[in-house]
Amino acid sequence: MTRTCVGIVGAGPAGLVLAHLLAEQGVESVVLERQSRDYVEKRVRAGLLEHGTVARLERHGLAERLRARGQVHRGVELRFDGARHRIAYAELCAGRHMMVYAQQDLVADLIRLWIARGGAIAFEVEDVALRHLDGERPEIRYSRGGREERLGCDWVAGCDGYHGVSRGSIPPGVLRVHDHRLPFAWVGVLAQVAPSTEEIIYAQHERGFAGHMLRSQTVSRFYLQTEPDDPIESWPDARIWAELQLRLAVTDGWKLREGPVLEKSVTEMRSFVVEPMQFGRLFLAGDAAHIVPPTGAKGLNLAVADARLLAQALTRRVHASDSSGLDAYSEDCLRRVWRVQEFSSWMSWLLHRIPDATPDAELRRRLQRAQLEYLVTSAAARTGFAENYVGLERV
Ligand code: APR
Asked: Is this structure's pTM higher than 0.90?
């Protein structure tokens, strides 16, 4: 059996940032990933980084390519009734800006830097099983290339996302599960077309939400509100462009460029949180413990925030035998998680078409409109939006 200090399950943003921050403090870890390196480095996911996330990655020497290739963003555009409303969030938040950088590129950077610093990582592991989590010496059993492996560790970090094994390794009755599906879903589209905007656009429209996100100078990402159980087959490319043209339309002559659709899929919108984010010597981080509706693009940023808190707590335990950080880990993370859940849910209800089946749908639509008009006319409301969107430093 091999041994390490921290066994990390999952090579997504949470697991990789945790591994780097621990290594910087001289705490050894091993990262186990189910997929191949090529797969995780090409898997299209999020791509909007809060000010604090960029600052954290920079502080730990993980942001060189992000800084070189990412795009700095200082504002966002809301659209409704054919009009645009810019929210200059950097101005409203003392210059704190966001960055657009594809999650798969960030994951590729973190893996390259991890291997370059001699970090241990195993891809394509199978049948991962966690043992003795409530004892002194947890163990991770897995197979690789047909060989059974056992990794003894002092702590286990469950960074394996919503569909991983870590959360399911916690005995029934320990976790309190909050799981709420919003009555909306998104058709996510990646298209080979230059962006038609310099800033992200969120459009509220009677036909449903539309979003024009950014990825690079040649590839753009779009989202369209659809029914939760709508199959992607009901969204042929022509319908996608027709709906984007309608929902993003404004009256000042702005035009949306179209291009070949590279990838499309339907994503459900859900608020999911487990409490606590720990069982014995297993600590959950990122999507393994919480899923936020994608509207505010917070999932990646929450994963990095969890990883930072867990790295600090484990480092204090290893080097100073001080368990206070580990004892408070779950509570500290959940404070930020619920703040972000609230903001993401609020933003989702603000920008999506309220389904007819929603109780008091017409009344809610009037309330939604009143909120939108308040947001674009009140400096206080814009500042509240801006600081949540850019990311609250201290939560
Ligand atoms: N064994 C090993 N690895 C696993 C297992 C398993 N049984 N199950 C899942 N994994 C891996 C996945 O293949 C994935 O690479 O764990 C990793 C989890 O990474 P993410 O899903 O990216 O989760 P996280 O690091 O928490 O980052 C959250 O990712 O999904 C986006 O929108 C989400 O932006 C958010 C961010």
From this structure: yes
